[in-house]
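Researcher: Sequence of Acyl-CoA N-acyltransferase (NAT) superfamily protein follows. Predict its structure.
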Amino acid sequence: MRVDVSVSVIVREFEVNKDKERVEAVERTCEVGPSNQLSLFTDMLGDPICRVRHSPSYLMLVAEIDKEIVGMIRGCIKTVTCGKNLSRSKTSVTKHIPIYTKLAYILGLRVSPNQRRMGIGLKLVKKMEAWFKDNGAEYSYMATETENLASVKLFTEKCGYTKFRTPSILVNPVYAHRTKISRKVTIIPLTPSDAVIFYRNRFSTTEFFPNDIDAVVNNKLSLGTFLAVPSGSYSVKTWPGPDRFLLGPPCSWAILSVWNSKEVFKLEVRGASRVKRGLAKTTRILDRALPWLKVPSVPDLFRPFGFHFLYGLGGEGPKKLKMVKALCEFAHNLAMECGCGVVATEVASCEPLRFGIPHWKMLSCANDLWCIKRLVDDYSDGSIGDWTKSMPGISIFVDPREI
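Model: Prediction complete. C-alpha cells:
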C-alpha cells in the first residue's frame, strides 16, 4: 500500500485534560507482542505518564494528524554512573570513584497501527532527543525486545543508536502460599538512610547507578531495602549500621530493595487459548488445595495483575547465592501479602547473582536489548571516552522508576 507522505504530522507536549482518553485509546491498539500470539497489555490506571512521573525530569509528547492522536513517546533524564576512575589518597590507598553522566531514557513509543510506515515514530524520537539536548543530556538509550525488529530497525538504522547491553528480565510467579526461608539466613530491614550509605559505598561505580539514589529509596513506592546475612552473625538488634558493617562484613551477604509497581500500572497477558487458561487455572486450584506439594502454579495473568520489582541487587562471599535466594523468597512473601501476580527483576546478562534468583523461563526474557546514542561531542570525563563503545561490566543498576 502506498503511503501518503503529504500528511501533516504535528508533535506537541502531552496535555492531560485534553489528551488522556485519546492516548489511552491508542495504547489499547498497540499491545506488545507478535501478532496472533501472546501479547502484553499495560493498564496505566488512568495515568499516561505514570512510568516516568517519578524521574527527576520527564516529558511526554504526542503526534497528531488532523487533531487525531496517532502516536506518543515518553522520556526522562537523570544522572548515572557511566564508568570509574582510580583515586589514590594521601595514605596511598587506591579506590574506584564513579564517573557520572547525564543520561536520557526513551520509553513508551507508540504509533497507531493504521498510521505506521509514515515516519511518525522517527519524528517523535527526534523531537524527544531535541528536548534531551536542551536539558544537557549526554547520552540517550532505549530498551526493547530483541524480537521487535521494527523497533530495533528504527533506532539503529534511522536514529543512530547502537546495540549496547543485553540484560535479562527474570520473572517469578507469586504462589498462593508463602515460601519457606532458610533458617540459616537472617534478613535485616534497613532504614532508607542506611540503604543510601550502603549503596553509595558498594555500588556507586556500578554502571547505570543513579546519583540520586536517596530519592529512589525514599520514594513512597520503595517498600524497603533488605540485607541477608548468615544466622548468628548479625540480627536486627545487633545491626551496627552500614559503615561498621562494611568495615568487617560476614563471610557472605546480599542486599536488595523492593519497588511497588502495583501502585503505578498493571499488566495483562492477552491472546492465550482456552486450553492454556484452563491449565493455568488447574495449577492454581491444586496449589491452594495442596500447598505442601508445592505445585508450580501459574497466577491469573490473563486479568490485570500487579507486580513488585526487585532492584539494587548485590552480594559477596561464597554463600551469596543462598543469601540472594533467601531475599527473593522474602520478597515473594511480601508480594503475596500485597496481592501481586509476579515478582520481577532485571540483571546484567553476565551477573553471577542471577543464578540465585528464582524465576520461570517461560515468563522471563533472557535477552532484553538496550540501545544507546551519544548526543554531544564532548564528554563528562575525558578518561572514559565514548560510553557507547565501552565493554559491559559484570553488573548494572536498574532504576525501578523506569520499568
